[in-house]
Amino acid sequence: MRNLLEIEDLVLKFYTYEGIVEALDEVNLNLREGETLGVVGETGCGKSVTALSTLVLVPAPGRIEGGHIFFEVGDKRVDLLRQDESVLRKIRGKDISMIFQEPRVYLNPVYTVLDQISEVYIQHRMKELCRRAIAETDDEIKGGKASFLVEFEKSIFKEMLKNPKSPVLKVVSKIPILNRYKRRLERMLRKEIVDILGAMEIADPERVVDMYPHELSGGMAQRVVIAMALACNPTLLIADEPTTNLDVTVQLQILNLIKILKDKFGSSILYITHDMGVVAEVCQRVAVMYAGSICEIADVMEIFKNPLHPYTKGLLESIPLPGKEFKSIEGTVPSLINPPAGCRFHDRCPYAIEICSKMKPKMVEAKKDHFLRCHLYAGVLK
Amino acid sequence: MDISSRWQQFKVSILPTLKELRFTFSRIKQSPISVMGLAILILYILIALLAPVLAPPLPNRDPYMIPQKSYIFMPSPPSKDHIFGTTENQYDLWYGCIWGTRTAFRIGFMVVVSSLAIGLFIGCVAGYYGGIIDELMMRFTDIIFAFPGLVLAMAFYMAIPDKVTILQLGEFNWTITVMALDKVLIALVLVGWPSYTRVIRGEILRVRTEDYIEAAKAAGCSDFRVLVKHVIPNSIYPIVIMASLDIGAIVLTAAAMSFLGIGAQKGYADWGQLISLSRNWIFGDINNPLAFWHVFLIPGIFIFTFVLGWNLLGDAFRDIIDPTIRRR
């Protein structure tokens, strides 16, 4: 299976007043077509930043210092870090889209659900809508009872298809009666959006489209955000802890929904979470992240049954289960301003050997499809 | 058949708008104070619209110039010919107050809309792009804030020339004569925009870091679209409310300038000027100190109720336009 997304040696630093935060240190990830890859790790280990760098939307003091992010657009393989902003804008929301952690703050409070989702359509699917509008007007003209206005509408849609920024459109859209073509588009958009909200298993989508974000419940808001993300059938969907702030029951519904939608829309998912239970539920493969680098990538079952990296072992042992005494990992997460030299986990690692504090381990394939970065297993290959 | 079905369609399409409108009115009705403000302003709007009927201007004369009965210095009390009486130099008070309503609206709206536009533009650029541009623009507004507003407005008024030559090509001369009232407007705009700039910049700084802006970027919106469609609608409410409150305040400031002798030309229908003309007559004589009560009280009431109306409506405005508190 080919790789849809490949992140190679991504280095990202935040230049803050306190010092340089080395947030990502040579992150390597690959996401295969059609799979769900979980990224797990503690808060602040760089999961969300990895997601944002995939969209090349790193927040202000952050800067990507090195590496590549290869992504398949159509049949082309492009390095997202070396593209123009205009190219990226076409990719964002269309080929790669994102679901966020706290859905309600990611919805603009002054727009209704309809307006929010229309935004994505206006950005990326206007041409398709125009084509369908032309077909619709054609039907009406053939039906015979259409007035000359419908013919005019059709010519407007054709103009729109040819050149969306045409000055003619700008003038016509301001003239009453002549700008009735907008209404047809709005009607089509509305129908489209009601349909997609229905696919999100929202009850009574006709009513929900006219609601403002603050009128939605948490689960509903998350469904709207997912609808927004899936509106353009993206090939890659990044889900940044989409269920963390929801009730357990709603969480389960959303997880099921994501699974169903994945099959329906055929997207690959990069699923970011800190919840191992969720990972077991939705993912095929897991990448474990610690202090800005990936320490282990393997299949879900492999990770749970046979974890190799000491951090992964510690992480799995720290899941509380009834009847089982859970252990937490000794020590604290290191500050990323002055990260430990060598392996970033060495000062908390119970199996640390001398080389761990001196040299950064390389990514090695310990078994088939089981990669990790640890000196303990470096010898396996030698 | 066709027309009736069209009508049905139209009715259905307009339904949500009507519903919102009805909701807006129910919102206003909830607070009696804003109903009062609204009533006052509707009254003034009616006066302004019906000015030619209420006080018919003399033919072949600028309607904004108050007719003068004679050149007698002393005001005369209300009479049948002059309902509100006449003020100093026999200017008709009724005419002045009615046509002055139009002037008040013009001053209020034009100054506020222009300052809002300038403030919005500069605030947006400064707040959204930040960095050195932000620093330069904000320090410039600080300079304007460092002067007392009224004094600075007077200085600007004096600095604006009466005639501005825009283009001069040999014989051809394109010159604009700046009316005295326009000078007041420009001076007030030049003093008024920094406060809007500051508020809008602060709001934009707040909104810019909100998560939904990031979401909009992730959906593929360009910088300009993010600013216009997502940042501005979320940050504009404070300054719209500020503007609605300011319309009253600006009319007061303009009146104060008129009172100090800096304003429209003599005889122009302007409440401030009517007050200014009453300066000599506030105290009548020893035996009858309130002999000329009408010359200052009547224009005073006009200004007072006008400003009061805007202030009362200001709060209602916030409840109506901000969708996040609108439904509460």
Task: Give the SSE string of chain B.
Answer: HHHHHHEEHHHHHHH
Q: What assembly state would you assign to the polypeptide chains in this entry?
A: heterodimer
CATH superfamily of chain B: MetI-like
As laid out across the biggest beta sheet of chain A, the strand order is 6-7-8-3-9-10-12-11
Helix-strand pattern of chain A:
EEEHEEHEHHHHHHHEHEHEEHHEEH
**Major beta-sheet overview of chain A:** 8 strands, mixed
CATH topology type of chain B? MetI-like fold
User: Which descriptor suits the 3D outline of chain A?
Assistant: elongated
Instruction: Tally the structural domains of chain A.
Output: 2
- CATH topology assignment of the largest domain in chain A: Rossmann fold
Helix content of chain A: 25-40%
Low-confidence stretches of chain A: none
Task: Tally the structural domains of chain B.
Answer: 1
Report the count of strand segments of chain A. Answer: 12
Q: Into which percent range does the helicity of residues of chain B fall? A: 55-70%
List the helices and strands and how they pair.
The complex is a heterodimer of chains A (382) and B (328).
Chain A: E1 3-15, E2 20-32, E3 36-40, H1 47-54, E4 62-73, E5 76-79, H2 85-91, E6 96-99, H3 113-124, H4 126-143, H5 148-162, H6 167-172, H7 181-199, H8 205-208, H9 218-230, E7 236-240, H10 248-265, E8 268-273, H11 276-282, E9 285-290, E10 293-299, H12 300-305, H13 310-317, E11 363-367, E12 370-373, H14 378-381
Parallel strand pairs in A: 3-8, 3-9, 6-7, 7-8
Antiparallel strand pairs in A: 1-2, 1-4, 4-5, 9-10, 10-12, 11-12
Helix pairs in contact in A: 3-7, 3-9, 4-5, 9-10
Chain B: H1 2-30, H2 32-49, H3 51-54, H4 93-129, H5 131-145, H6 149-159, E1 163-169, E2 172-177, H7 180-208, H8 211-218, H9 223-235, H10 237-259, H11 271-277, H12 293-321, H13 323-326
Antiparallel strand pairs in B: 1-2
